[in-house]
Amino acid sequence: MRILEVKDLRLGFIQDGRIVLALDDISFFVKKAETVCIVGESGCGKTLTSLSIIRLTPPSAKILGGKVIFEGRNLLKIPEKEMREIRGKEISIIFQEPFTSLNPVFTIGDQLKEAIYIHEKISEEEVEKRCIDLLKLVGIPSAELRMKSYPHQLSGGQRQRVMIAMAICCRPKLLIADEPTTALDVTVQAQIIELFRRLKQEYDLSLLYVTHDLSVVAHIADRVYVMYSGMIVEEGDVFQIFYNPKHPYTRGLLESIPYKVKRKERLKSIPGFTPDLLNRPSGCPFHPRCRSSSDICFKEKPEMRYVENGHGVRCHLLEG
Question: In what order do the strands lie in the sheet with 231-237?
Fold first, then answer.
């Protein structure tokens, strides 16, 4: 069963009296108790996509079309009051930098309690107990003591664990994690990823995980969507993407992983830079960086084509 379905989402920014397209025909879905990863370089539109789902995009952003269907409701059409009830209770989001997401003048306990009070009417004793249990669940030592701590008194990994506790405090059905391990060292990253896997099983969560790190995708994903310049260029299950990539951009990302490089072999990279939204290339947005581009790539934007079960590719090369 699909708990979330994004259909043909288009979003632009109003700049100097004109609309600059940032997301172009974004379509994907998340099933119940499934982990879906959106992967791509910085600036490709991953975070903007996740913010569009919960309607927290910047004021200058404008939805140009499409639907975001969550359990039968189009989130782009419902009143803001109803949307506020959904955020945090049914859909939660964890942001990239926990230090800027936590209020520095309130204790961890106060911020956890507030997240519960907003959506549930329960006694103070029950709220206190739930907060302590949540901190223990996410691996915070001395949970009772940490309830009285301020964000600056915690390590980066502990702050991220607090953010996860806040996100799951009302047992949401969908959890969106936007680059949650980027600012953490490798050891803590592994612990947080394992925590996500455990919470997904215990809470029967659906997880939408946004990242640029393919090694994380390999460990956590059921299905993967590869984004480039505001478009999804390839989609499939984790085995199709890693063992049978079809799009030149996906292959370039996989070839750029350092652990795949043999000793004394030069690390491969994708030439060039991601396109400027103000000067988006005609046709396929990847053609200026693609080693295999042809005339049609300069002229026509490729459509998504499915080569096998659930494996879609947006590339003219499939036509030979």
Answer: 91-94, 174-178, 206-211, 35-39, 223-228, 231-237, 311-314, 304-308
Beta bridge partners of 67: 7
Q: How many CB atoms lie within 10 A of CB 297?
A: 23
Record the tokens describing residue 93, joined without a space. 């989001």
The structure tokens 């047992």 sit at 171
Contact 23, 230 (CB under 8 A): yes
How big is the chain by its Cα radius of gyration, in Å?
21
Q: Which long-range contacts (CB under 8 A, 24 or more apart) does 120-128 make?
A: 120/170
Would you write out the chain's pLDDT as a tens digit for each of its 320 residues?
899 999 999 999 988 878 899 999 999 999 999 999 999 998 899 999 999 999 999 998 999 999 999 999 999 999 999 999 999 899 999 987 777 788 999 999 999 998 898 888 888 899 999 999 999 989 899 999 999 999 999 988 899 899 999 998 888 999 999 988 877 788 888 888 888 888 888 888 999 999 988 888 998 999 999 999 999 999 999 999 999 999 999 999 998 877 655 667 777 888 888 888 888 888 999 999 998 888 899 999 999 999 988 899 999 987 65
Q: Give the H or E element holding residue 211.
A: strand 206-211
pTM above 0.85, yes or no: yes
